[in-house]
Design a protein that fits this description.
This protein is 36% helix and 25% strand. It is an alpha/beta fold. A seven-stranded parallel beta sheet has the order 9-8-7-10-12-15-14, sandwiched between helices. A six-stranded mixed beta sheet has the order 1-6-5-4-3-2. It has a two-stranded parallel sheet with strand order 11-13. The radius of gyration is 18 Å and the shape is globular.
Length: 305
């Protein structure tokens, strides 16, 4: 029997600390397989994503649309579902809300990277972009790192104010920042969660900075200035979420960096060494393996309840 879960039900099964732990466990699981995802361009500039993955127990297919034109319309940019199947029986076990899975697993990946890579994790946290990903990252870093102060920058003052108000309900000190560049001197933690239509950070990062950049996931998209990326490569560490980033990480590709030579999150999770001194840039482009980790986490949460 299939359990069909709405957005709130899906979120309840994906607590950020547990999801980050499941992502680390998945990276150590030799039985995980993630075929190449299909990205089909649609009329009007939208895209259809078909993303399969499986392990010895579960198989998933994530089916979502990404419609950039929905920005500011009240309609979500990402819509769809994640279908979860039992490998042994072939039965469909769960249908998870796709946008909720996308937001929470992306934020949990950034959280895991910060837990393993951030030189310091006390904050303040700078969040650039106040949409679904900005909210998810704020919640994940609050729950998983214990940050107490957040500063929010967005092209939409109303969205930034709304996210700041949400942060205060979580017990955080929150403020709206008109210029994210000026916050870099005070914020050792930063995440960029924008539609990636243009550069949002250009300045030099602190020596103890950790930046998670998640908005740009095609070669044409960008959030970080090329010089910022090259500067981190010269005096710090750049880590990508998966090797697929060599074809997708617009920020790094436009900076002329050899992305194929950069370490990925699996190497960080399985390796003993922390990065060299200096700022850390974590570049995330997305992977169906993260959705499989979310399915594993959801199934485990259900079985424990």
């Amino acid at each position: 029997m299939t359990t069909l879960l709405a957005a709130s039900q899906t979120a309840a099964l994906l607590p950020y600390p547990a999801l980050a732990r499941e992502i680390a466990a998945l990276l150590a699981d030799a039985l995980v397989r993630v075929p190449a995802r299909l990205v089909q361009a649609l009329p009007g500039g939208a895209s259809l994503f078909v993303m399969p993955a499986f392990d010895a127990r579960l198989a998933i297919a994530k089916l979502i649309t990404f419609t950039p034109a929905n920005a500011g319309s009240g309609r979500p940019a990402i819509q769809g579902d994640v279908l979860v199947f039992d490998v042994a029986s072939g039965a469909r076990r769960l249908q998870l809300d796709g946008p909720t899975v996308t937001a929470r697993r992306t934020a949990a990946v950034s959280l895991l990277a910060a837990q393993r890579l951030a030189p310091g994790n006390a904050g303040p946290l700078l969040v650039v972009g106040a949409g679904a990903q900005g909210r998810a990252h704020l919640e994940a870093f609050a729950q998983g790192l214990g940050i107490r102060e957040v500063r929010i920058a967005s092209r939409s003052a109303a969205s930034a104010s709304a996210l700041a108000a949400h942060a205060r309900t979580l017990g955080l000190q929150a403020s709206v920042a008109d210029d994210p560049e000026r916050q870099l001197a005070d914020c050792p933690l930063a995440v960029t969660c924008t539609p990636a239509a243009g550069v949002v950070l250009r300045g030099r990062l602190r020596d103890d900075a950790f930046v998670a950049a998640v908005g740009a996931f095609t070669p044409a998209m960008v959030e970080l200035a090329p010089q910022l990326c090259r500067d981190v490569a010269a005096r710090g560490t750049i880590v990508v979420d998966t090797p697929d980033a060599q074809h997708e990480a617009g920020d790094l590709l436009q900076a002329g960096l050899d992305v194929a030579r950069l370490p990925d999150l699996r190497a960080v999770v399985l390796g003993p060494a922390r990065p060299s001194p200096g700022p850390v840039l974590f570049k995330s482009c997305g992977w169906a393996g993260w959705d499989l980790a979310a399915a594993r986490c959801a199934v485990d949460q259900l079985e424990q309840s």
